[in-house]
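agent> fetching stored inputs for the zinc ion docking request
agent> found them:
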Amino acid sequence: MKVINAKLRHKDGLYTVSYQQGTFDSIELQTGLLNEAVSADVIDAKQQLLMAPLIDPHIHLDAVLTAGEPEWNMSGTLFEGIERWGQRKETITFEDTKQRAKKTVDMLTAHGIQHVRTHVDVTDPALTALHAMLEVKEEIKDKVNLQIVAFPQEGIESYKNGHGLMEEAVKLGADVVGGIPHFEYTREKGVSSVHFLMDLAEKYDRLVDVHCDEIDDPASRFLEVLADEARVRGMGERVTASHTTAMGSYDNAYCYKLFRLLKRSKINFISCPTESIHLQGRFDTYPKRRGLTRVAEIDRAGMNISFAQDSIRDPWYPVGNGNIIRILDAGLHICHMLGYEDLQRCLDFVSDNSAKTLCLGDQYGIEVGRPASFIIMNAQNDYDVVANQAKAVLSVRNGAVIMRRQEEQVEIFA
Ligand SMILES: [Zn+2]
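agent> prediction call returned; pasting tokens
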């Protein structure tokens, strides 16, 4: 099998990319445009961009497609979202969760996403959503590689048997340990929740991804606790701080000191720009904060940060369609990252950087010997993807085509 006439990121010319038995076996520069007939064995990329699959490193597949059930979030705040979700949770069933999650996975697949990290609420004595998601993970494995985070939506220390439920979730098969320290009832409970979740991850050899300081409160400083725990234990590359929106409200003197620790800790960051600009800044009049973490500054400091969509039509965020390029577009705007250099490499924030966060290692990337998983975008390069709001037109996973989009035709009559 081979793809001809492919553009590759950051490379001049056109390439032929070949693969056999689900693995790339050669990537060669062509001398010019090839005119081979398309067949079952030959795909013509038509001078479009062939790249590693897109990734959504932070979503809540157990909550998707529930907006307005039973009530809409009228204030638009994170905290009312948690209340509305509390109501919806009472009617969650195993089948309902599976059906919504699988429908959403198809929406993600349609946009060229092949790796997903989903948080699953485990503050439920029956762990219904977790059981459902473990089945979903198995049933969708030909489309998407799913990492499941044991996520304590209502707290670890502040929810009855929070510790027990987290450990049970990990034993049942959660890949990643989560947390929500800023939502715990007291600062001390927030700190002890971080110690607990890091112990749990170390004990069971799991990754860590914490909803950390998702609030505009400049006094919310659990990121330093998480980063230092990661540093001391030497676990940084396996640890992620999601959101960290309070950093958008920290003063520069504290942030300067904090960055020294963050760099040494080697932890990863995830920003959910559409979600955060919607949920944060809700208690401000004007000037109104953007409510995002310092994405550009984290990136410029050489740390790893990526973008994610967080929600699709749930109590926290009423829209979304699975298209991570929409998130990238919004994130670059909100974070003042539409400069020339950012545009040349902006797909890193929804591909390579996210792969590092998910610890995909040599299971990801367009290189000989790696799994033949790739997408073709209807664009030429990173800049073109954002400027033209490009879409994935083909998605191939381990050598098998899993999605093809018909190119749209526009006719202008004037
Ligand atoms: Zn989240």
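agent> quick read of the result: Residues 187-204 form the longest helix (18 residues).
agent> awaiting further instructions
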